[in-house]
Amino acid sequence: CRRPLFFHGYCMRRTLIWFDRGYRWSLSAICVALFVVMIAAVGGQVVMRYVFSSPLSWSEELARYSMVWMAMLAAALCSRSGQHIALMGSVPLPGRLKLALQILATLLTCAILGILFYHSWDLMQRAARQTTPGLGLSMSYIYASLPTGIGLMIIGQLLGCAMIWAGIEKTAETSADTVDEDSPVGSEINIPAIEENPVRESR
């Protein structure tokens, strides 16, 4: 028997929710792991240099390249969460027009990211012949952070647009305009007026 249409819509929404959770959780976990590696490399270098007088030759590179990968993955995570720089309009727009503008902005962003992805992939291939002096790794592994982060940004942008289209999330402008009533930001604060003391005329 054929399943009703609402069942397929429900399955699509659940699939988007689970995929979005996995996307955010995996990127967050990798960023935390890279941050721990960076702190451990810097701390180990300090201990080996000033305690044992035997500095490590690879710890600085490990910390630097961990920071590069963490920055690109965190940028993809921020792009999905809508924490990138954006201009918000002050004029209220209808819901359909606001959704259309959101989709148009997402498509333009993905187009620009696609151009950056193409050039970063070419840069990664050119750096394949170079190796790092400390770790002895190919520089293509380091430059691979650029196409990886940009590709994840594109996935995050499309995923956010799909979540808005399915009605799971609100547009960025709507969520920014909506303020919780219990929040101290949205509550009105009554400040009592300060009465000025009358100046007494000196006789």
Mean pLDDT: 78
Shape assignment: elongated
Q: Please summarize the sheet with the most strands.
A: none
Helix content: 55-70%
| CA-atom Rg in angstroms | 26 Å
Q: What is the H/E string?
A: HHHHHH
Strand content is: under 5%
Write the layout of secondary structure elements.
Layout: H1 5-50, H2 59-81, H3 95-126, H4 139-143, H5 145-165, H6 172-177
Helix pairs in contact: 1-2, 1-5, 2-5, 3-5
Structure description:
Helices cover 66% and strands 0% of the residues. With 203 residues, it is mostly helical. It is elongated.
Produce a short descriptive summary.
With 203 residues, the chain is mainly α.
Notable characteristics:
mainly alpha; 66% helix; elongated; disordered C terminus
